[in-house]
Every structure is written in C-alpha cells, then in structure tokens.
Amino acid sequence: MGIFNKIGLVLLLVLTIGCKKEQQIDVVKNSLIAEGKALIKQNSTILLDSLEMHDMSPVNKDGRLKPLKVALLDSVGINERFSRETLKCSTFKLEESDFSNFHSPYRLNLVKKEISESQVLFVSFSNLEIKKDLANIVVMKTHGIGSATDRYYFEKQNNKWVFARKREISRG
Question: How many CB atoms lie within 10 A of CB 148?
Fold first, then answer.
C-alpha cells in the first residue's frame, strides 16, 4: 500500500468518526429539546404561577381593570452536557401549542425580544437542564423595575414531568 493510500485511509477514518460524534450530539440535543418542550407543556401553569403578584393594573374610566399583558420570550436557553467537560448552551423556540395546558386569566403573547413597557409583564425561561429523570429551569418575571427569579425542579415519573419544588433566587 502506498503512502498516499494510507493517508487517504486515515483521513477517511477520522472524518467518519467525527461525523458519527456530531450525529450522536445532534440526537442528544434533539432529545433534550423534545423533553424540554414536554416539560414546559405539561407544567406551563406551574412555571407561570403568581402572575397576579405583578398585576398592578390601573382602573379604566368605566371602572374596569385594564388587564395585565404577559409577554413570554419565544426561546428557551438550554444547557447541553455531553460529558463532564463539555457544556454547550443553545436555545429552542416555543410555539403557542406548547401552552395548550396553560390555565390562567392572563393571556400569553410570545415575543422575540424583551418588552419593557410598564403594563407588560415580561417572562423568560433559561438555564433548562435535564439529566435523566431530573430537570430544572429558571423563570424570570420582570414588570417595570420589579422582578422575580425562581428555579423550578421536576422529576420524571411514568413519562410525565412532575413538579418537585421551587426555589426563589431573587425578588426585586
């Protein structure tokens, strides 16, 4: 076998291994996104709890409350851990159908960027982490100069994400 044939064989082998590793990473990423969407869909009412705490709606001239608008960022930050050393952060998009289980007097509006209007409660999901049957996600709610940031923890039981606990990170 000539030297060029050996080099070609080695290059082909390296490329094949590299592509398989990328395909494995894509499979893991797609699985994390599917699990993240399922978690949000199954627990949207829990993740979007205490919206009324931010409702300082003014009263209209006719005596009715002007409803608080809730703007939800349409992308979720997810932490992908492929090994102990490799942590990659990426995002995935939310859709209206991801909130079909959401029950509240407040209407959600998916937005592409933060809105800082005084009558809008802005909500974002970030730092979603899923490891086997455990998951957690950070939810930040901002209204004017006030905000609340909480981390929600979940356990997977019988293929459903079940709320375990909530930890307050900050109030302001």
Answer: 19
